[in-house]
Amino acid sequence: MDTGLTIGEFSRITHLSIKTLRRYHEAGLLQPARVDRQTGYRYYILDQVPTAQVIHRFRELDMPLREVGELLAVTDPDARAAVIAQHLQRLENQLDQTKAAVVALRRLLDPQPAALRVQRWRTEATTVAAVRGVVDRTHILRWYAEAMQELDSVLAVAGEAPTGPPGGLYDNELFSDERGTMVVYIPVARPPRSGEVEPFVIPAAELTTTTHAGPHDDIDVTYGALGTYVKQQALEVAGPVREIYRLGPRDTTDSSRWRTEIGWPTFQTVADPVVNAGQAPS
């Protein structure tokens, strides 16, 4: 009479340790086909091999035991696919965060960091087509993408071609309180008004600027360097930070070529030290 596979035999077939199989049993993920009442020995059948391997793969992807159990309990293929897709999206987000942290740490640990190139110059008031909103910090990227999409659509209908690179204004509260006002804009000759898009005046300001090269994974390091410079030069910040996307994902998929100008409206609090003042960056 075939009594099934012992836990040792099942372990060899699946490449899962006996300890792991016992843990799956205790968590209710993989019940043995039979448990001997007298000895407590666990016995499995060959049909359980694929299930054991599926559990193992998802555990390798750090899916919590509870979610693995929920996945195995779902019999509808579409519903199961939705659960898997949700977990994979979370893993992709975690991977992106890990990559960004690695890039920033490598730059911070560089014994010979690149010299910060700073300019101070005065801008004139400029009217642009813009979308404004109060945004949670965790929603910045999604809000930005939606706002830019609406700007592109409205400007296309109005027949207005951009006269310069897109940009954004970001209130300090976005960083200090994790919620604040954002403005994204595209310069055009005649800003239309439609839906969320409206004419907006970017006020004149004395700007202290630098350019961040590459993807935004470590843009906070550039912000830190510029902020350090601002304090060292006895400057005070007088408004929302400004970003101009002189070359970005809208222009090229090669992120190494991206160039983001970061500018803080500043004013001098003591006698003006020697600075690299000049014209607006080209």
What does this structure look like?
This protein has 282 residues and is α+β, with helices and mostly antiparallel strands. The chain has helices at residues 7-14, 18-26, 49-60, 65-73, 77-108, 140-158, 173-176, 219-232, and strands at 5-6, 34-35, 42-44, 119-123, 126-136, 167-170, 179-186, 198-202, 205-213, 235-237, 241-247, 259-268. The chain has 2 domains: 5-73, Orthogonal Bundle (Multidrug-efflux Transporter Regulator, Chain: A, Domain 2), CATH 1.10.1660; 119-268, Multidrug-efflux Transporter 1 Regulator Bmrr, Chain A, CATH 3.20.80. It is 38% helix and 24% strand. The longest helix has 32 residues, at 77-108. The chain is elongated and about 85 Å long. The model is unreliable at 274-279 (pLDDT under 50).
Largest sheet: 9 strands, antiparallel
If you consult CATH, what is the topology of the largest domain?
A: Multidrug-efflux Transporter 1 Regulator Bmrr, Chain A
SSE run: EHHEEHHHEEHEHEEEHEEE
In CATH, what is the class of the largest domain?
A: Alpha Beta
Q: Are there runs of 5+ residues with pLDDT below 50, and where?
A: 274-279
Number of helices: 8
Query: What is the CATH architecture annotation of the largest domain?
Result: Alpha-Beta Barrel
Sum up the structure in keywords.
282 residues, alpha+beta, Multidrug-efflux Transporter Regulator, Chain: A, Domain 2, Multidrug-efflux Transporter 1 Regulator Bmrr, Chain A, nine-stranded antiparallel beta sheet, 8 helices
